[in-house]
Amino acid sequence: MGGDHFSTDKDDGVKLDKFRDECGVFGIYGHPDAARLTYLGLYALQHRGQESCGIVSSNNHDLRLERAMGYVSDAFDQPRLDRLEGSSAIGHVRYSTAGEVSIREAQPFLVTCQHGQIAICHNGNLPFAAEERRRLEREGAIFSSTSDTEVVLHGVARSRASSVAEAIPQVLKEIEGAFSMLFLTPSALIAVRDPRGFRPLALGRLGESWVVASETCAFDLIDAKYVREIEPGEMIVINEEGLRSSHPLGERPVSMCIFEHVYFARPDSLIFGHSVNESRHKMGMQLAIEHGVDADLVVPVPDSGTVAAIGYAAQSKISFRFGLVRNHYVGRTFIEPRQSIRSFGVKIKLNPVRDLIEGKRVVLIDDSIVRGTTSKKIVQMVREAGAAEIHMRISCPPTISPCYYGVDTPNKADLIAAQMSIEEICKFIGADSLGYLSLEGMMEATGISFNKACVACWNERYPTQITASAETMWERDREAVHLQSRSTSHKYSTDPKLLERITINPEQLGGTPCIRGMRIRVKDILDLFTAGLTKNQILKEMPDLEKDDLNAALLFDSLQHDNMPVNKHDNMPVNK
Ligand code: SF4
Asked: What pTM was estimated for this model as a whole?
């Protein structure tokens, strides 16, 4: 992945400050038009991934694979779909939560092994796959991609079980992580969901055919009927004998991803059996109860804030207006990593309606603030359009921790709510007031009980152990330069006398902390450190710097952020 962690917002290329969706899967068994229906299913799931897509079909003898980069509608044409003959198929849309962005990483993966042909596609993330991959590589295994999903495929291929359906639980029972997975063999479609149920997976019926999908909106497009959620830990095998359900992965506490309801899923989907639209509407209503304000207009940040804004307006009796208009036709040409282009991108994508906003007290509703930079631009735009007051309201709690379960998130160091108080964020984005929905209010709105939910990105209570290697994999995937440590094993010097070496130098360097008597900013030292230079390399790079100056800079930063900076040459800290 590139060095820029901004997400593309759903269906175009302008980068907004959002957690990024994971992937979407779709499968169908027993329909003469399986590949075409999979194409349509993926089309409905396009918001879950736009980097690449692929379909594998089965004609009962062989599997055929077609994969491509880009959108489903661009990637598949008539001849390509014609090549995918057969009555069952699985498909995938991908964002790169793990692995690089390239056609090699596009799913489904297809291999031939002792069990015959097997295809796999996966929504989720396997934080522990890195260790397993290293073990397999030591034993001589060859991987064609960097994806964690391939580790599972290797396990199944190497299993001595008598069938693929028996091999899958043998492999997945050992693996902790988030997986809603589909397998296709020439004769069967197999769907499996991890015992914690992080990511959604729904079962549907189209006539006599069975369908499975990440979201039920994929069923609606093909007129399939929603049957039920595939349960956490459940495996479903569909073949000519019909559908067989089992729970071979054992039981673990369920922890369904609540961000699906806040942002990822389409509002017309049922996720974990609950309506996303209803959740978001209730979140908006609850937000109005918790953070009411005297105002003239409720304006959503489109599209992600729209449903919550309708709820907020309904509860507060303040009129709802589309005060920001979104350009839906912005192309991928605007994906650029540079800050200047990024800012431009926001303006290209959203435009305020001056006539509506001028002189008005506006409540702006969005679903989340990740780094704060986009919110700042939006507030500035609305201010420039003449708003008298801007009250920002967010339909989930402050996002303070990265996700290890299949969602592309920035480092903790880049999550604004992990670094600033709500008052500081409000000041940073330039709003007159800022209010976040409480954790309790959000959960109440989803109708999902706390003991079945993952809310780790809001409260840092990860449902699984996060190991150093999981963090390393996560960091590698995002080319992270900051891995924040909660470890006490790091022994940077904490001698407070060191801090006397730090000074604020308003004249030379605009008020930023510097090393006393020098024009060296603490930030510049930290940038080198977190980019992976060793202390000795930094001292070489900055010949005027003494070792204690370097230690002072690290200590100063750790006190600022209530934790220690870590670089790639340190031992990886172990979380929890
Ligand atoms: Fe979802 Fe957040 Fe949990 Fe990740 S950490 S699974 S985004 S709730």
From this structure: 0.78
